[in-house]
Amino acid sequence: MRAVHAITNFPRVYPGEATGANEQDFCARKLKAIRHLDGVCQQHVKATARNLQLAREHRLRPVVLVRNIFDIVPSLTDHFHHESRHFPTGFVPEWFLNADEEKKWMFTIKLHLPWYLNFLLSWQEAEQELPIYWLTYQQLFANPTEVIRDLLCFWNISVPEKSIEYGLQQVAIQNTRMNKGIAGRGQLLSSYHRQELLELVDLTNLPPRLESLIGIDAEDNT
Fold first, then answer.
1. Which of 175, 191, 211 is the last residue of a domain?
2. Degrees, nearest 5: CA angle 16-11-29
3. CA torsion angle for 81, 87, 91, 95 (degrees, to 10)?
4. What is the sign, positive or negative, of the torsion defined by CA atoms of 195, 200, 204, 206?
5. Residue ranges of the alpha helices (H) in the chain?
6. Model pTM score
7. What's the domain count of the chain?
8. How confident is the model over 180-203, as pLDDT tens digits?
9. Alpha carbons 59 and 145: distance in angstroms, whole number
């Protein structure tokens, strides 16, 4: 959330237990060290019982950022191939780098997309315990100013309108990683890959509201 950092001047913090390919669960020691500090963090973290306990204790107000689940497949596959095979969603063997694209996509769908679905299910249930703001990449890209206003309201933060404009300009100038969240890449998937992914999603019994957030239309369930 570089935009929020630029707008509020809140420091970027990382209250996670570990980095790299490990699960990025909240760390009680780190949270305690910054408990009197207003900060911004971004983590790949599921709403486990321990994470929720720490979130309640430290009055965290999480924003759950999701994207079209079909788009995740080529994006994550590219990350494994061009950036790093080490990621919290699971292990990627070395042979993956030399596999054909269709096999890479199927590997990603069957072995790594379950992490994302577990992520969704955990935060869906966590809504009963914490205030949560659900946000999609598409919403953020379509109207960043309005989204930032809503986020600041959710966090009970007041800033001048000029600060919002300045922060968004700074993020645009920096050309951040957020620009890599390109929408529509899931259309590259074959009908076979899409069906495999839809069968996984079907097991979750996600409500239509959340299915819509991750790009599942009513027609996909017929």
1. 175
2. 30
3. 10
4. negative
5. 2-8, 28-33, 49-57, 69-82, 101-111, 113-126, 137-142, 144-154, 161-174, 191-202, 208-213
6. 0.88
7. 2
8. 556 788 999 999 999 999 999 999
9. 26
CA 191/CA 194 separation, integer angstroms: 5
148: its two tokens: 């930032």
Structure-token pair, residue 159: 């800033």
Looking at residue 129, what DSSP letter applies?
T
Range of the domain at 47: 2-64+127-175
Q: How far is CA 222 from the centre of its chain?
A: 27
Provide DSSP, 191-203.
Answer: HHHHHHHHHHHHT
What parts of the chain have a pLDDT lower than 50? 178-179, 219
| Secondary structure class of 158 (helix, strand, coil) | coil
Q: Are 56 and 129 in contact (CB under 8 A)?
A: yes
CB within 8 A of 122, min separation 6: which ones? 46, 47, 48
Could you give the C-alpha distances from 177 to 30, 114, 130, 186, in angstroms and in order?
A: 26, 24, 28, 19
pLDDT for the residue 67: 94
Give 65's strand partners. 135
**Residue 185 corresponds to which tokens in the numbers above?**
């890449």
